[in-house]
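call fold target=tRNA threonylcarbamoyladenosine biosynthesis protein TsaE
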Amino acid sequence: MIPHPTCLSLDSAEETTRLGEALAAALFPGLLVCLRGNLGAGKSTLAQGIGRGLGLRRMASPSFVLLREYPTSPPLVHGDLYRLQEEEIPSLHLDEYLSQGYVVLLEWAERFQATVFPDRWDLCLETPFLDDPDQPFDRRILRAWGHSAASLSSLERGIHRFTSQEQERKGQR
């Protein structure tokens, strides 16, 4: 595990989506991606970006069905734990999806203990500027951790891809 998170400032929902698209290229079979943050912090936007990066036009919210499977490469399971209690989460059999080579992407991942899954990204979105009129309303801070050598390396690749693409975009303006 990395001792300190990688931190990024995201200035808009569009930038958050582009981050998700870049991170999608770094996913690998058996990776657990835990999205954390307050209501409205951008978890669904980031998840949608990951889906777009995997070639999905649209990802339906899993809020009421809890999990949705997508035949991407690698295969994806998108879940939303908002309505679940911690003791209900084992019934989702996330470990089985991971052992079958799925990437498991979870919103509201703070609802369960993910520490038993070493191949994991923790992506925490924060909105510390909501009350600051001098900051863009959509600005978010992402704190990202990888918890195994493989997950840290892939996370670093995804973030590097994003920052390189953003530098190119800003240089073209």
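return ok
Residues 6-172 form a domain with the Rossmann fold fold (CATH 3.40.50.300). Strands lie at 6-10, 32-37, 67-70, 76-80, 103-107, 120-126, 140-146.
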